[in-house]
């Protein structure tokens, strides 16, 4: 099994790829010699990832890294990240000539950021307080070259709070535009216009057009702007006209899209729609004339594609449950020009399953959309993804399951995001509720279809999914009067999860997420306690593998430690296999840490399957 683990760890050294706006510079991290090395590749010279040069001398295994913008004229890369995996998120710039990085903001958490078209001004948010699950921000503007900051906005007394996203500038650079969130509820987001001279503000969308996360497309902002909204249930393209204040809808998608892109010259839109049942992606290219959109080309391709970027060229990802990630360039006729494999080795050595789309019926008759992978060899058991399932995406851990003889069910339980607004909002106010019962019915589907005993069926997940694993394993019988809601799982696999909702609320840097999921804690404390796995450790009867970063600041390890201690008090410690990763945050990329995690996982699963 050592060779199998090494195969997957060594075949996927490339992560966090980012294509620059020049369409010819590809950035990515490569895991080498225990470090996360940022490299850059000139695609005009080579398509081979091994030809990429080092872009920065930092070890990016020790920091979060979200690239935002490449400035080829300055040979600089702007990114969001931190210094120590603590998620104190700030803006940084890498000088690609000297291969050095410098921090350009100093805040507990920068959520909003933008640079003016003339590159003489930047705007950023500073989160200075979190109160009652709501963030409080100040907005600063900095002019170059003096580098002085000036406060231009504060949301402490505002109903609409600054949220994640980018700052866009008007053409005359006298106004800025950014996203705001009503009371940090993640339900009624809008766009705010701020006059930089007078300080006057104006909400741009009518309240009946507010939704969970509208976002800008393009840099126009002269006569209006394009934006994406799911107000009618699925993401579509809209345009707001500044002169008339009219909103026009330009696409009418009734399925979740896998990317909507606006070209750099704002003359074309591209939309990728994936039909899960047929396993076909539809590419639609639209021409824009005076803010009107007209379909110019449409074609279908087998398999799942998603949009990477659209500046002058069109770049997409091809990736499914049996094929590792590829980056593909398309021409204006949507023909494939070249392919870059983001992996090492041959596909047949890295793919050990087949897959299909299925829907199974849950306790209340609702159909749960799901993908299922089947090992090519003997079926010995099954594992279900607890949350963030329902996607047709390659994963090396999924392939490892296949090699061990495990069927993998990936259900889009209610609350999942890729099946429309209505399905996503089923979880609102009900975290740890009906979406967990969906898993029970998924397990019973596997029992019936494959003739498996419950002792060979497990549940796995990370972060929110890690919580869902522990919740499923400790769910009381006949939960909420749902008969037979509890399932006697054979095992659980929990990565970076949380066991106490109160503790998560108090320690996480995203308490508003929990308020959205379960309501304000002051009014729902009993529910927070009741839906915490640590409250129901006495119900635990399954073996569970727990892996967690010691320095995880998004999901503090404290509640997992409490869960482990409660297991000890309940004399259930023998059910636990734990891997606490020293120095790691919410994810870990060190080869040694990943190898040990895989090793413990394989030994754990083999003990179950025997």
Looking at this protein, list some descriptive labels.
eight-stranded mixed sheet; Rossmann fold; 11 helices; 610 residues; alpha+beta; globular
The poorly predicted ranges are none
**Mean pLDDT metric:** 94
Beta-strand percent range: 35-45%
CATH class of the domain at 352-609: Alpha Beta
Strand order of the largest sheet: 31-32-34-33-35-36-37-38
Gyration radius over CA = 24 Å
**For the terminal residues, how far apart are their CA atoms?**
15 Å
The appropriate CATH architecture of the domain at 352-609 is 3-Layer(aba) Sandwich
Largest sheet: 8 strands, mixed
> Total strand count, please?
38
User: What is the 3D shape?
Assistant: globular
What name is given to the CATH topology of the domain at 352-609?
Rossmann fold
Helix content: 10-25%
Tell me about this structure.
The chain has 610 residues and is an alpha+beta fold. It contains eleven helices and 38 strands. The chain has a domain at 352-609: Alpha/Beta hydrolase fold, catalytic domain (Rossmann fold). The strands form eight sheets. An eight-stranded mixed sheet has the order 31-32-34-33-35-36-37-38, with helices on both faces. Strands 12-11-10-9-14 form a five-stranded mixed sheet, with no helix packed on it. Strand 25 (280-289) and strand 26 form a beta hairpin. Helix 7 (501-507) runs antiparallel to helix 8. The longest helix is centred in the last third of the chain and has 19 residues, at 591-609. The model has no long low-confidence stretch (mean pLDDT 94).
């Amino acid at each position: 099994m050592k060779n199998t683990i090494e195969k997957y760890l060594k075949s996927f050294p490339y992560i966090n790829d980012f294509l620059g706006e020049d369409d010819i510079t590809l950035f990515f991290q490569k895991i080498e010699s225990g470090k996360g090395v940022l490299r850059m590749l000139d695609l005009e010279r080579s398509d081979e990832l091994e030809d990429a040069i080092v872009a920065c001398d930092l070890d990016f295994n020790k920091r979060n890294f979200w690239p935002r913008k490449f400035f080829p004229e300055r040979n600089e890369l702007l990114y969001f990240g931190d210094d120590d995996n603590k998620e104190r998120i700030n803006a940084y710039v890498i000088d690609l000539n000297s291969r050095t990085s410098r921090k350009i903001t100093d805040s507990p958490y920068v959520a909003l950021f933008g640079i003016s078209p003339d590159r003489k001004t930047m705007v950023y948010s500073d989160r200075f307080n979190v109160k009652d699950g709501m963030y409080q921000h100040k907005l600063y503007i900095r002019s170059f070259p003096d580098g002085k900051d000036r406060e231009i906005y504060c949301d402490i007394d505002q109903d609409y709070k600054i949220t994640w996203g980018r700052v866009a500038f008007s053409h005359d650079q006298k106004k800025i535009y950014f996203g705001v969130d009503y009371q940090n509820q993640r339900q009624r987001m809008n766009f705010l216009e701020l006059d930089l001279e007078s300080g006057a503000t104006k909400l741009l969308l009518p309240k009946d057009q507010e939704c969970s996360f509208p976002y800008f497309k393009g840099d126009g902002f002269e006569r209006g702007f394009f934006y994406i909204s799911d107000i009618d249930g699925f993401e579509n393209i809209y345009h707001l006209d500044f002169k008339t204040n009219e909103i026009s809808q330009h696409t009418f998608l009734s399925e979740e899209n896998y990317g909507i892109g606006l070209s750099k010259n704002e003359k074309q839109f591209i939309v990728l729609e994936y039909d899960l049942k047929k396993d076909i992606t539809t590419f639609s290219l639209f021409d824009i004339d005076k803010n009107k959109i007209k379909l110019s080309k449409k074609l279908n391709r087998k398999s799942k594609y998603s949009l990477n970027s659209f500046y002058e060229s069109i770049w997409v990802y091809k990736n499914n449950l049996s094929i590792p990630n590829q980056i593909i360039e398309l021409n204006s006729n949507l023909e494939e020009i070249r392919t870059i494999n983001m992996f090492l080795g041959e596909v047949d050595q890295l793919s050990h399953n087949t897959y299909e789309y299925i829907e199974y019926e849950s306790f209340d008759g609702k159909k749960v959309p799901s993908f299922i992978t089947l090992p090519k060899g003997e079926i010995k058991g099954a594992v279900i993804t607890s949350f963030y399932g329902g996607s047709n995406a390659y994963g090396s851990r999924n392939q490892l399951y296949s090699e061990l003889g495990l069927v993998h069910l990936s259900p889009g339980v209610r609350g999942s995001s890729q099946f429309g607004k209505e399905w996503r909002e089923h979880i609102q106010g009900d975290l740890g509720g009906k979406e967990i019962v969906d898993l029970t019915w998924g397990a019973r589907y596997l029992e019936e279809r494959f003739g498996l005993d419950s002792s060979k069926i497990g549940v796995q997940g990370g972060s929110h999914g890690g919580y869902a694993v522990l919740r499923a394993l400790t769910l009381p019988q006949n939960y909420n009067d749902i008969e037979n809601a509890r399932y006697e799982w054979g095992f659980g696999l929990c990565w970076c999860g949380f066991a106490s909702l109160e503790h998560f609320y108090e320690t996480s840097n995203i308490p508003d997420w929990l308020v959205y999921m379960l309501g304000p804690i002051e009014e729902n404390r009993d529910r927070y306690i009741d839906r915490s796995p640590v409250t129901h450790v006495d119900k635990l009867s399954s073996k569970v593998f727990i892996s967690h970063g010691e320095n995880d600041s998004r999901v503090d390890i404290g509640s997992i430690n409490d869960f482990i201690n409660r297991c000890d008090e309940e004399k259930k410690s023998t059910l636990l296999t734990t891997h606490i990763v020293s120095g790691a945050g919410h994810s870990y990329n060190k080869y040694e840490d990943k190898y040990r995690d895989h090793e413990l996982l394989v030994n754990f699963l083999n003990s179950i399957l025997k």
